[in-house]
Amino acid sequence: MKIGDIDLAWHGHDSFCIRAMEKLIYIDPYKLPNNAEKADLILITHTHYDHCSIPDIEKIAKDNTIIVIPPDGQSAITKLKKKVEIQIIEANDGREILGMRIATIPAYNIKKPFHPKEEGWLGYLIKIQNTLIYHAGDSDLTPEMKQLSKYRAVCRDFIALLPIGGTYTMNAGEAFEAVFNIKPTLAIPMHYGTIVGTIQDAQQFKQLCEKQGIRAVILERNIKVISANPH
Predict the structure, then answer these.
(1) pTM check: above 0.90
(2) In a domain, 137, yes or no
(3) CB 160 within 8 A of CB 188
(4) How far apart are CA 24 and CA 141, in angstroms?
(5) Which residues have a Cβ under 8 Å from the Cβ of 128 and sit 6 or more positions away?
(6) Three-state SS across 143-194?
(7) Between the CA of residue 117 and those of 103, 123, 125, 134, what are the distances in Å?
(8) What gap in Å lies between CA 175 and CA 30, rounded to an integer?
């Protein structure tokens, strides 16, 4: 999907890649093709196997790939064969990486046990020029998430990638409530179709958004090589 000068692709589940400023950024790479293009930057939201997938990170890591990860994932990343740069980040932190602003907010469950707040797991805010992309990680609708509406006024495009599959995260209705609070310019559902959640959940989410005049897009899963550009 093209958003200004940014290319955004969904690889299923919570896995996305972003091409911007001649860099390739992956978020929670999972079930990637073996010949997927190498990453300049990898963002990991938390250490569950379907988000911090070492086999998938191995596919896209090259020497000097930057991997940003919460503290409990550091030991797994140090086992990679490539000489990557590991940056440990905690919730409510931010830094400049490769000309982009990368910030974090907590991602956690409110009344479910799967993602406790005390684990320090993350959602990411990726600021690329006048576009902000929010990847919620595995989260419910939290007080911190509700505060993100302030970014709507300062960005040309504010893209929210939100889990809708239920069980471990928000369901479609709860994700719509998040959108209603966040007020992004575009909402994209994720965390369905692989472990939990169905395309029907994604369609329900889209319909709820559109009834309120909020643009929502269901991306097709990209299972192909991202490009033929080797590095």
Answers:
(1) yes
(2) yes
(3) yes
(4) 29
(5) 6, 18, 20, 21, 100
(6) HHHHHHHHHHHCCCEEEEEEECECCCCCEHHHHHHHHHHHCCCEEEEECCCC
(7) 17, 12, 18, 19
(8) 22
Residue 156 located in a structural domain: yes
Phi, psi of 203 (to 5 degrees): -65, -40
CATH number at residue 13: 3.60.15.10
222 in a structural domain? no
User: If you average pLDDT over every residue of the chain, what do you get?
Assistant: 93
The length of the chain in residues reads: 231
> Is the CB of residue 151 less than 8 Å from the CB of residue 158?
yes
SS (H, E, C) 7-26: EEEECCCCCEEEEECCEEEE
Q: How far is CA 73 from CA 132, 191, 221, in A?
A: 25, 21, 27
**pLDDT tens digits along 99-152:** 999 999 999 999 899 999 999 999 999 999 999 999 999 999 999 999 999 988
Residue ranges making up the domain that contains 190 = 2-211
What 3-state DSSP class applies to 82? coil
Fill in the amino acid letter for 14: D
State the total domains in the chain: 1
153 part of a folded domain: yes
In DSSP terms, which residues pair with 43 in a beta bridge? 27, 68
Q: Crossing angle, helix 199-211 and helix 172-182, to 10 degrees? A: 40
